[in-house]
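Project outcomes to date are best conveyed with an example. Our students and postdoctoral researchers have been running inverse folding experiments weekly, and each run begins with a structure described purely in tokens. The record below, which covers 99 residues, was selected by the lab manager from last quarter's runs and is presented without edits.
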């Protein structure tokens, strides 16, 4: 669920299209998820980092931010923190968690 939701957030941040690449790997008991979106004019949801981490209040969420909030809930249930990087035409998410 987490990988699919991160891929959705990447795709939603590419209003002019582009590509989304997802990678899931496991070493011993650690699971790593990496999702990267590339395209022209990358535009993530406003306040995405705060929404993913649960620092935003539920009452003021936009419809686009609601998906990010849910993704953050899934991550926290897995004891996983999501790292985000947005540079140029690329948006990347990375997280890892133990089983």
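After processing, the design step wrote out the following sequence:
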């Amino acid at each position: 669920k987490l990988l699919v939701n991160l891929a959705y957030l990447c795709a939603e941040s590419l209003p002019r299209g582009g590509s989304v690449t997802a990678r899931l790997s496991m070493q011993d008991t650690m699971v790593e998820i990496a999702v990267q979106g590339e395209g022209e004019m990358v535009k993530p949801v406003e306040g995405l980092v705060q929404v993913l981490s649960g620092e935003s209040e539920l009452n003021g969420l936009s419809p686009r931010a609601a998906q990010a909030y849910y993704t953050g809930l899934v991550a926290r249930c897995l004891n996983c923190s999501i790292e985000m990087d947005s540079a140029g035409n690329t948006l990347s998410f990375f997280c890892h968690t133990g089983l």
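The chain has three helices and four strands. The radius of gyration is 13 Å. The training component of this project remains on track.
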